[in-house]
Structure formats: structure tokens, C-alpha cells
Specification:
about 20% strand; alpha/beta; Rossmann fold; Maf protein; eight-stranded mixed sheet; 16 strands; 3 domains; about 475 residues
């Protein structure tokens, strides 16, 4: 079986497609809606396709697609992809199991894609997936991805789509036991300037031990996407579907752990934001965001620490965004890609002060002015939570923030026009809480930390012994 080239380099697309065709265990269907038969074309082109392809089909007409797979809210959506995978895999099992079920592993590959059209303008993206048996008569396994095609020409988008599809098929068959290698291989023969993969989900028997949150993190870590999202229950979210037409409120932090002050900051900002005329009466999507720079603060990413933070945010019922957008203007641009509704970011006064440090904008020709032009381009709102100086007892707010003399007029302008807003509805009991103190108290087995975090967070930390919690094992803690 063809697996690696003589030079020990990754196989190219031709070699991968041929390796699949020459593996007489694999047999299944390719079903593709929109953008042509770009993936299956590779398997026909390289030869020996008769041993792999039970059926190939394409549906361009919406009514035909509905007749085959049932109606869906949209034609390029996860719901439609899942219907395609389920239907085609079910048909293969029904039609072929008796004849070759002892020796074959059946699969169904599907994609539903909107490439650049004749008139242009629409987002070029698609859903792609494979449902398969890892071994004959095995239970099903599945991998689903969402891709954005970034080439400017339709032919190039179709070419890129074909390549990533072959990578997915090959990866499912050869790397299902090492899913991180599968993720690594998805852009073989491509670059992040051509394809972005902003969502991946593993499910089924072969991936029963896979944590999809780690796979989401991997996408961002490898640069396959600038950001990834997952819900409080750990379900992976596709950003354009979750954020679509929603007002957004984002809090950036380390959340190590989530403290009462983090929750209060978000609640105070939500109270103000939801009263804006453009937001009132609408459901605001509240998001806690962690940057890759934060996760890499100690060097390499500690995956156990990442999952601890994710579980703690989940205990608060929060949607989590992992992003590689350290600069706030890049985060704002990413969010604006998916919604035309209002966007707000809440931060502490200390972070606000850093926002006006021009050392972060030297890579921009226009410096800090250009960055703020981008940040507030769509009338974005920033809500500033006060910071308590524990030495002096003074509160730092957006109204008394010390700004460099040369930036005071810019700051005053943003404050006056409502780009920057003060949060005066805070809970005074939260102002003295800092996550570093909570971590220290956990390490010292000082039980007072429990009053500094939400009750569900305290329970998760104790139950799962996050952040080196050992108080349950220390008899002296009970008498403190």
C-alpha cells in the first residue's frame, strides 16, 4: 500500500488519491453539491477508481437536492451536509453489506459548497465531511470540517477544494488513530492563504477519546484558522452560524480561573449594552475569549491547563472563543465578518491603559490612529470596568485614566462620542478580586478563595483538582 514517498515527505494529492484507490478495503460514495465534482475528480483522474467508488453524484438544482436529502434551511449548511452523509452511508450499508461487508469498510464523503459565482460577492465557503467504518462491520466514525476558500478565482477555489477533500479522505483512513496528524495533514499541498478551516468535529467509535476542544485549539495553533469556538457543553461551533445576525459582547481574559470580577464585568457590560436602541430586545451572544498569546504565556501550550480553563468557563455557561487576534482591531474585524449587528468589548481599566500604548501598533503604517480607525470602524463599543489600586484605595476608571499627553485628545474624542463607556454599575465586593490571588490561595490551601469565584467554578476546581488543588487531601484545611 502506498503510504509515504521515497523521500519520506508527505504524499502529494495524486499519491494520496491513488493510495486510497489501491486499498481494496475502502468502498463508498462521493456526493457533492455545488462547485463541481472537485474531490471525486481526483480519484477518477489517478486511476483504479473502480475499486473505491461505489457511486458518484452531484446535485446542482435545489429541488433535486431537496428531493434526495430533504429540505434544509440553507443549502450550504451543516444540516444539509449531515443529511447527505447519513443518507449515502445508509444506502451503502443496505446495498453492499451482504455482498462484501466482511472485507470492506464502507464510507460516504460529502460536501456542499458555495464557490465564487458569476456575479461574485457571496461568501465562498463550504461544509465537507466523511462518515466511515475504520474496520469491516465497525460502528461508524465521522469527521466534519467547515472551509473558507480565499482564492479570488473560481477555478482556483475549486482546485483548493479538491485538494483539501482528498486530504480529508486520506486522513480519515490513515490517521483516524492519530487525529492530530489528521488535522496537520488537511492543508498538505495548500497554504493558509488559500483555505481556512475554522471548524472541525470528530465523532463516532474511532474518535471516542477525542476532545474536540483540543482539536479546535489545534486549528488555531497551526494557523489553519484565526479563531475557533465551542459551546459550554463542549460542542464545536462554526462561527458564521453561531454569530450570524447577533449582537456580540466579548470579554477577553486568562480566566485562570473565572472569578466573580469576570462575571460582574460581563454582567455590567451586558446591562449597558442591551439598553442601546440598536440592541434592545435582541438576544446578545456573550463570549469569553482567550488569545493564543495568553495560552502560550509560559512557552508551549499546556493542554491540561487549557482544558481546565475551558471546563471552568463551561461551568459558567459561557461560549468560548480561542483566537490568534492579540490586537483588538483584528478581533473586531473578525467578529464584524459574521454579523452586521452591534459589537461590544468589555475590559478592565488596566487593559484600557494598555490599549493606548502605541508600542503595540508599530507594524501598522498609520500606527495607533490606523488601529483605532479599524477598531471603531463599525461603531464598536468598549465598556471599561474600574480597577482598584489596593495600595491607595483609589479607583481607576475610563474617566480618570492616565493617558500619554499626545493621545489625550484622541482618547477624549472616543470617550465623548461613546466609543469608550464607563461601567459604574459594578459590584464593589468584586473590585478586590484578582485571579493571581485566587491561584495563590488555592495553592496555599486557603479556603477563602471559594468566595472569590462563582459557586459552580469552585465545585469544578475541587471535584477535578484543577490548578493543583489539594485541600481535600490536607486535614489541616478543615480547621482553617
Amino acid at each position: 500500500m502506498l503510504e509515504i514517498s521515497s523521500a519520506n515527505k508527505p504524499l502529494d494529492t495524486h499519491q494520496k488519491a491513488l493510495a486510497v484507490n489501491l486499498d481494496n478495503r475502502r468502498y463508498g460514495t462521493f456526493a457533492e453539491i455545488g462547485a463541481g465534482q472537485e474531490v471525486v475528480r481526483w480519484f477518477f483522474r489517478v486511476g483504479a477508481a473502480a475499486g473505491t467508488i461505489a457511486k458518484s453524484m452531484s446535485a446542482y438544482d435545489m429541488q433535486v437536492s431537496d428531493a434526495i436529502y430533504g429540505r434544509a434551511a440553507r443549502y450550504v449548511c451543516r444540516e444539509r451536509l449531515q443529511a447527505m452523509l447519513d443518507q449515502e452511508h445508509k444506502l451503502n450499508l443496505e446495498r453492499l453489506t451482504d455482498m462484501r461487508g466482511e472485507t470492506s469498510t464502507f464510507f460516504a464523503f460529502a460536501d456542499t459548497v458555495a464557490a465564487r459565482g458569476y456575479k461574485g460577492g457571496a461568501e465562498c465557503h463550504g461544509w465537507m465531511g466523511i462518515k466511515f467504518q475504520a474496520h469491516p462491520r465497525d460502528e461508524d466514525s465521522q469527521v466534519i470540517i467547515h472551509v473558507r476558500m480565499l482564492d479570488n478565482e473560481t477555478a482556483l477555489q475549486q482546485e483548493a477544494l479538491g485538494i483539501v477533500g482528498v486530504n480529508l479522505v486520506y486522513g480519515a483512513f490513515h490517521y483516524h488513530h492519530e487525529p492530530e496528524m489528521l488535522v496537520d495533514s488537511l492543508l498538505d499541498g495548500l497554504s493558509t492563504s488559500r483555505i481556512e478551516i475554522d471548524m472541525i468535529e470528530f465523532s463516532g467509535i474511532a474518535f471516542r477519546r477525542v476532545d474536540n476542544r483540543l482539536m479546535s485549539l489545534k486549528l488555531v495553533e497551526l494557523g489553519l484558522s484565526g479563531a475557533a469556538m465551542f459551546a459550554a457543553n463542549g460542542t464545536v461551533l462554526q462561527p458564521s452560524e453561531f454569530l450570524y445576525k447577533k449582537p456580540l459582547l466579548v470579554e477577553r481574559g486568562s480566566f485562570r480561573p473565572v472569578c466573580n470580577v469576570n462575571v460582574d464585568m460581563l454582567q455590567c457590560a451586558h446591562e449597558k449594552f442591551s439598553q442601546l436602541p440598536e440592541v434592545k430586545g435582541k438576544e446578545v451572544a456573550q463570549i469569553m475569549e482567550i488569545t493564543m498569546r495568553n495560552l502560550k504565556a509560559e512557552g508551549e501550550i499546556d493542554r491540561r491547563d487549557f482544558l481546565a480553563r475551558a471546563d471552568i468557563m463551561a461551568a459558567c455557561g459561557m461560549t468560548v472563543l480561542i483566537s490568534d487576534y492579540f490586537e483588538y482591531y483584528r478581533l473586531a474585524a473578525y467578529l464584524a465578518r459574521y454579523t452586521k449587528e452591534k459589537i461590544a468589548i468589555t475590559m478592565g481599566a488596566g487593559s484600557m491603559r494598555e490599549l493606548f500604548d502605541d508600542k503595540y501598533y508599530t507594524q501598522l503604517d498609520g500606527g495607533i490612529l490606523e488601529s483605532f480607525g479599524r477598531l471603531f470602524k463599525n461603531d464598536l463599543k468598549i465598556y471599561c470596568y474600574p480597577l482598584l489600586d489596593r495600595d491607595t484605595g483609589e479607583l481607576m476608571t475610563c474617566e480618570n485614566l492616565e493617558i500619554k499627553p499626545e493621545l489625550k485628545k484622541l482618547y477624549g474624542y472616543l470617550l465623548e462620542r461613546g466609543g469608550i463607556n464607563n461601567l459604574d454599575n459594578y459590584d464593589p465586593d468584586c473590585l478586590g478580586i484578582f485571579s493571581r490571588d485566587v491561584l495563590r490561595k488555592i495553592g496555599e490551601c486557603d479556603l477563602s478563595w471559594e468566595s472569590m469565584v462563582p459557586a459552580p467554578v469552585a465545585k469544578v476546581i475541587k471535584d477535578r483538582k484543577f490548578f493543583d488543588y489539594t485541600c481535600d487531601d490536607d486535614p489541616s484545611c478543615a480547621t482553617r
